Amino acid sequence: MSVYLSMQRVRFSSPDAYLKFKVVFGDVRHHLMTLPGFLHLTWWEHPDDPTWYNEVSFWASKEALTDWHMNTYHKHAKEWAAGGAIMEDIITNFELVGTRLLRICPTCGNFQDAAFDLTQEQATLAKPCPQCGFHFPVLGETPTSSAVFKDLVKVESNGAMVG
Predict the structure, then answer these.
(1) Exposed/middle/buried for 12, CB within 10 Å: 0-12, 13-18, 19+?
(2) Mean pLDDT of the 107-121 span
(3) Disulfide check for 57: which of 26, 30, 33, 41 has CB 3.0–4.6 Å away?
(4) Which of the listed CATH numbers 3.30.70.100, 3.20.20.80, 3.20.20.70, 3.90.550.10 matches domain 2-97?
């Protein structure tokens, strides 16, 4: 299965513009979770230049991403941002084919190399080592995270998957 990837680098016109953007962006997860073809979105501050922000989103197809861009909420949010909040926005899109997950268990050294289905990202990452049962760390959505996972799987403190 191929997956469509969209990446953006954004620079805001001021720190205040970014704070206002965070309010608008904070509601995006509610809209993305209802969209067919949405898989994952992550937003973070660039580690070497805190005035640049980065976004990566994964989609089942280019058409799914186009549908998001035509979504009423997204169109209004982009119009607002283009009205002065964003100074620069660099967008790169391409198709991913053959995504893989490579893992080395820190307890038994078992090496895993397998195809990685991004539509099942959180469920796959929550699986323990097949040889010794080590539970790899999994970070899903948190109050301070701007990651949005369509296949969010909750993991209890003992490592068991829930949901």
Answers:
(1) buried
(2) 88
(3) 41
(4) 3.30.70.100
